[in-house]
Amino acid sequence: MVALNQLVLVCLAYVVFLFGVAFLAERAAVRGKGAALLRSPLVYTLSLSIYCTAWTFYGAVGYAARSGLEYLTIYLGPSLVTIGWWWVLRRLVRIGRSQRVTSIADLISSRYGKSNVLAIAVTLMAVIGVTPYIALQLQSVVLSLSIFAAPEAEASGASGGFNAAQAAFWVAAGLAVFTVLFGTRNLNVNDRHHGVVIAVAVEAVVKLIALLAVGIFVVWGLAGGVGPMLDRIDASPIGAWEVQGSRWAALTMLSAAAFLCLPRMFQVMVVENDDDRHLQIASWAFPAYLMLISLFVVPIAVVGLDLMPAGSNPDLFVLSLPLSQNQNGLAMLSFLGGFSSATSMVIVATLALSTMVSNHIVMPVWLAMRQGGATQSGDVRKVVIRARRVSILIIISLGFFYYRASGGSGALAAIGTISFGGVAQFLPALLGGIFWRGATRLGALCGLATGFALWVFTMLLPSFGVDVALSREVFEQGLFGLAWLRPNALFGIEGLDPTVHDVVWSLSLNALIFFAVSLFTFPDPIERLQGAQFVNVLDHAGATRGWTASVAGSEDLMIMAQRILGATEAQAFFRAEARAQGITGNLPEPTPAFVQALERELAASVGAATAHAMVSQIVGGTSVSVQDLLAVADESAQMLEYSSQLELKSRELSETAAQLRAANEKLTQLSHQKDAFLSQISHELRTPMTSIRSFSEILRDGGSLGEGEKSRYASIIHSETIRLTRLLDDLLDLSVLENGQVTLHLGREPLHDVLDRAVTTALTGASSTLDVEVVSTASGVVLHTDLDRLVQVFINLISNAQKYCRSEQPKLTITPELKSAGLNIDFVDNGEGVAPDEQAVIFEKFYRVSGSQGDGAGLGLAICQEIMARLGGRIIYLRDRGGAAFRVHLPLSALATPAGTEVAAAS
Ligand code: ADP
Predict the structure, then answer these.
(1) Domain 651-738 adopts which CATH fold?
(2) Which of 339, 358, 359 shows the shortest CA–CA distance to 347?
(3) What is the pTM (predicted TM-score) of this model?
């Protein structure tokens, strides 16, 4: 007989061993070692086996002993789900990773627009739904301990030597400590609980081996081989293949739903998943595990019923059979198997629930209570850890109290079914959320509330027994005396199996209301976005590769990097990384360190969010979350702004370039003009110089010249010199005017005085017979301008008329006219005028109408034009005025007219 103390010691040693395993795994994960094992599909598959709790370990045999093969339904559901992994599981895992989901509450709330209400609702429902399940595990451990204690108590003659409540308390406390130690070590939600997962995997192996060992002992040790065993089964009522269609269908569906919705399953299946290729292996490996673990259930039940005294609890056959045969070692192993099943479930379930409770209830409350506190990050981390720990204690305590309240009685399987029914209510919102974009938050909330209320009323409350939570009247007459509100006969439909009754009503009404409300409500923008992300998660995630992707991953990274960094830079970066890794060639292994370095490098070019999104598209197989997209959009907006600024700059630059080009062209043109000008000047200068030189040579050499000739030559020289001087004066004048270096000497004088002065000066000493008439209009006008310069213009025009007017009686009429825009003074003679094609060019420097007489150099009108420009007016040639006609225009600003003339001007 195994002493209870001995058992407790072995138990403690086992727990210490698990601690060690978990600790080593954590340390290896931190150091980045043992990744192959920690992230292997085997560990993943084994971790899924927390589905098989003590309920499976002990309860399946009890279930089989009571209801035959029906227990298989509990394995059928999950098997179907894993075999069809690509339909639902793959989506969930992808969504879990891309949205960085931490729990099923997180997933549902984030699908429906990050709804807090939904998160809290799911969390509370999960806690309520799973509490019986945790109680069930405590109960099974206590029951199994009591089996060992019972004979001991009998032997010592003491009654009640084993205190079940105390044992349950210590087991609960131990589990709480383990969970706190390994579940709240690190905070980063992306960091997985490697320690816990490995410990769970080890426990999965232990429970499988234990159950197989007991099975083998029963078949070959007790029944005498496979043949006799089969005979026994045939003889037993259990062997009868009685399939109750509705119950089987309901239970299979229930277990499938629970497999997807149980917080602990979600934790190992989605949150702790590293690579969705693991699903592919789990799809056959997990059903195989289930098959192995259920292989000997019927034999153990049949033999147990045969050999154990009547009234023995069939739930404990796995333990009591070896004990009754004095197989102490086997009993111990069996106990450890059951212990493993119970503890792994409680640890993972508590971990999952505590994450939900602390994230969705404790933290929001804490943050709301102290506004602004969230800015101190160290503070918050501590609070989160504390919140998780407190949540773990609360959840395990709830389980403990449920265990005490339910009296620790009732068949294990029944309690398990209750839990399944509760969490299964998440299914419509979950499936609707990942397959149907039209699903809305209100729909999910209403569906959940309905389903959950029905579950509480038809399953949870009745489970406490008659007159505990619900009175007998409610059971018999219905709630509020309404006959259609009886917990076991809703809407008056009687005679259904209670489980079928609950599952059918709660799930179908849940789904119906979810669907109907969703149809009649509209999702808000975030819901829409999230809905699209969830439903289309498989479309944009593409082929997945783990961080340890093959060289193909590196190539893809290279192609992307080249696009962003440019070919040479990208190649240099890759080569340097390859060298650092000790690889010859250009493609380094896509290790996490390298990928991170690359991401940083890209971030410098395209922004952190974009870089992350791009790299994870290739490496992580992660899809891009809405936040990622928004961040990318932010960066693109910034880049757009940069690029528009650049565009502006480049436009400015091209404008400047155009201006420079124009200036350059002008300069070249000017240079040509200068050349032309210089040659023109030299030509103009040479003519008088030549005649001066030749006549002065004649004078110098010629002694035979008469006085008359001498004086004629001398006067030619004189007049040529005058011409030269005038030419040089004109040139100088023009250059001064053109350079804008003139200073105007403003003066006031009546217009007529100015004109008179000009006429007098121009005609003095002239031999011509030009008749100049000054029309006395605008007689009162007083000029206020540089009068000398203006006179210079007038003189030039009068002398031009003198020189070029080929009329028998040359006459020049000068007509001033005051206009609203200023003063016009027209100089019109009665000569031939200027031919139309030459009218525009006579103002050019050195331009002379061919054949025209006179000694001008063609600078007069050019100078006039420059002067008028300086005075703010202009000079133009007037067509069709009979002879040559020039108009000098002066602006109003050049006039200092007395008040009377202004009126005249206006009229
Ligand atoms: P210049 O200084 O040699 O007189 P201008 O620039 O004053 O040269 O005049 C340019 C040309 O315009 C002259 O060669 C002449 O042919 C023509 N011109 C100017 N005034 C008259 C006029 N009143 N009648 C006819 N032709 C004129």
Answers:
(1) Helix Hairpins (1.10.287)
(2) 339
(3) 0.60
